[in-house]
Write a structure and sequence with these properties.
This protein has 140 residues and is an alpha/beta fold. 40% of the residues lie in helices and 26% in strands. The two termini are 24 Å apart. It is an enzyme of class 2 (transferase).
Length: 140
């Protein structure tokens, strides 16, 4: 197990994921409220932690699907426990090796890409997962 997974697994168990949600929630919510979700869309959160952004986005009426991925298996377990709707999906994986075949209208990542084994590979994969005209939001 790599150090990143081990660190975030321990954070999932210690309540740190909920603390991150509280610390970042207000500013991230303000930012997400600036995005126009006026037509049906799909959303990916890279490094979703306990899934709080995915849960919030899934509440948007035009959201068809919101997926969160994370390297930490224990974060994904936490996210699945808090799942609110059928629109939400959580996957234990990293962006570089994820074999998803679909495309997304919006991809969001907060303080996660610098944990990638290769930021270049991660960004290339994100680009391939975006629909034409899709938007990528990086919060670091």
């Amino acid at each position: 197990m790599d150090k990143v997974r081990k660190t975030f697994d321990s954070w999932a168990q210690s309540g740190r994921a909920e603390l991150m949600e509280v610390e970042h929630g207000k500013n991230v919510s303000k930012f997400l409220n600036t995005i126009s979700f006026d037509k049906p869309f799909s959303f990916l959160d890279v490094g979703c932690g306990n899934g709080w952004v995915v849960r919030n986005i899934a509440k948007e009426s035009n959201c068809k699907k919101a997926i969160g991925i994370d390297k930490s298996k224990k974060m994904i377990i936490q996210a699945k426990k808090k799942k609110d709707s059928k629109k939400e999906e959580f996957v234990h994986t990293d962006i570089e090796s994820w074999k998803y075949r679909g495309k997304f209208d919006f991809i969001f990542s907060m303080e996660a890409l610098y944990y990638s084994d290769s930021i270049e590979k991660a960004l290339k994969r994100i680009y391939k997962l975006l629909k034409p005209g899709g938007q990528f939001f990086l919060w670091n």
